Amino acid sequence: MANFIVAALYKFVTLSDYQAMQQPLFDFCESQQVKGTLLLAEEGINGTIAGTRAGIDAVLNYLRSDHRLTALEHKESWAEKMPFYRLKVKLKREIVTMGVPNIQPDTMAGAYVRPEDWNALIDDPDVVVIDTRNDYEVAIGTFNRAINPHTSSFSEFPQWVQEQSGEDGVLGKGRKVAMFCTGGIRCEKSTAYLRSQGFDEVYHLQGGILKYLETVAPEDSRWDGDCFVFDERVSVRHGLEPGEYELCRACRLPLSAHDKASELYEEGVSCPHCHGTHTDEQLQRFRERQKQVELARKRHQRHIGVRI
């Protein structure tokens, strides 16, 4: 039975007093023994937190007691052990960084498509299906027919759109576009951005990949692989069951069993993705950290930064 509830949440709404909200929110989450990361900005709130059923419910009720966040939606999954090792409440310029001013996701986002209706949309050959996540996320799983923009950060996405909007691009004039991301927040901005650029028919997966994997049966699925998540579970599968990926503690990229079998893999130090990119000083630091990890394992203790 799951011991911890993992709640992913976001809402685009004007929070002019977001700075004043930081400490009270931190204190309340801490009082409920809830951990994870919450981002506050003038444009809204975003984050993923984990705790007991009672703790998560208390934090969600606390947030929704603010009239601006009454309609705050969240998605839940589970973990057998706490997937975060500390609590952070951060102040940001954007709750998801695109770097384009005056995007208005609360009024300009594309049309929502329920997970139950997503297959029919992306099976349409006239629809361009775009994965708005970063390259390393796409590499471990995505939807059939999805285009990978090969971005290393979301701030690169607008440039990709501009490059692909010409007659010869995948976003040529008049195309219908379906977009998706992990939990839905990036698509609020990416679809709003496309609409601001003159695209008329823009859709996005309501609740993101996580809601699709929770809702759609594996035998009916168009999803192939795992979905990367930003906590110590690393990835999830259908039914939001934990996947088999682990993190490279040097570069923070997900590792498959094949990656770990590589001669370039050294636990806690390097992997096929980052081998040869670190300085001698960094390698020495990584090896010392790994030594402490091994000592903690022998004592049956948890070391920060180790998969649990």
From TrEMBL:
Q: Which organism is it from?
A: Pollutimonas harenae
Q: Could you tell me what reaction this enzyme catalyses?
A: uridine(34) in tRNA + AH2 + O2 = 5-hydroxyuridine(34) in tRNA + A + H2O
**Which Gene Ontology terms describe the biological processes this protein takes part in?**
tRNA modification
Molecular function per GO = oxidoreductase activity, acting on paired donors, with incorporation or reduction of molecular oxygen; transferase activity
Cross-referenced Gene3D superfamilies = 3.30.70.100, Rhodanese-like domain
- Keyword Kinase on entry: no
EC assignment: 1.14.-.-
Q: Spell out the protein name for this chain.
A: tRNA uridine(34) hydroxylase
Q: Where is the Rhodanese domain?
A: 123-221
InterPro entries (alphabetical): Rhodanese-like_dom, Rhodanese-like_dom_sf, TrhO, TRHO_N
Tell me the enzyme class.
Answer: oxidoreductase
Keywords assigned by UniProt, alphabetized: Oxidoreductase, Transferase, tRNA processing
Family the entry assigns: Belongs to the TrhO family.
Q: What does this protein do?
A: Catalyzes oxygen-dependent 5-hydroxyuridine (ho5U) modification at position 34 in tRNAs.
Tell me one Pfam family matched here.
UPF0176_N
